[in-house]
Amino acid sequence: MHPQSVDSFYHVLRNPLFLAGFFSWFIAQLLKATIEALRNRSRSSREVVVTLFWATGGMPSSHSALVTALATAIGFQYGLTSPLFSLALFYGMLVIRDALGVRRAAGMQAQAINRMGRKLQERFEVEFEPVQEVHGHTPAEVSVGVLLGFFIAVAFSLL
After folding, report:
1. pLDDT along the chain (159 residues), means of 10
2. Distances (CA, A) of 49 to 33, 45, 59
3. Which domain holds residue 117?
4. Pick from 37, 48, 130, 148: CA 20 to 30 A from residue 61's CA?
């Protein structure tokens, strides 16, 4: 690897924007996996790892934590009047709205479809393939994610 490439890589890893975004996402996912493991003691280590790196929904919202951390860190680094802050703020609002509204509604619809499909399968012996249930977030999960992302970004921005 070229020395300049290594230096660029280390520069990215020291960037407060990167650190705030990464750690807000990772800590939110770690908390989510821990909460799920404690709630469902029978879960395997594989399920905990899947929750840590891939699961959506649950407490806290890693989507909300990540976009809030990025907008906050950008606000600290470039100022609240920066076009980059405006972009991050409105992108964050869109992601949070999606986590609360569209994804949650889609998940609830998928659950209803799966319940109806199972009933039809039992009653009329119709073959049914369940649809994937996407998990959105409750307002409490989003609120905790927003607070987590904000405080992590403040910490990295003031270091």
Report:
1. 76 92 96 87 71 76 96 97 98 92 82 93 90 84 97 94
2. 8, 6, 16
3. 3-158
4. 130
Q: What does the pLDDT read at residue 42?
A: 58
Tokens of 91: 């992108």
DSSP assignment of the chain, as one string?
--HHHHHHHHHHHH-HHHHHHHHHHHHHHHHHHHHHHHHSTT--HHHHHHHHHT--SSSS-HHHHHHHHHHHHHHHHH-TT-HHHHHHHHHHHHHHHIIIIIHHHHHHHHHHHHHHHHHHHHHH-----PPP------HHHHHHHHHHHHHHHHHHHH-
The pLDDT of residue 2: 67
Q: Total structural domains in the chain?
A: 1
CB burial readout 43-52, b (16+ within 10 A) else e: eeeeebeebb
C-alpha distances (whole Å) from 74 to each of 3, 51, 68, 99, 150 are 28, 28, 10, 22, 11
pLDDT value of residue 15: 93
Task: Quote the pTM value.
Answer: 0.81
| Upper half-sphere CA count for residue 79 (Cβ side, 13 Å) | 3
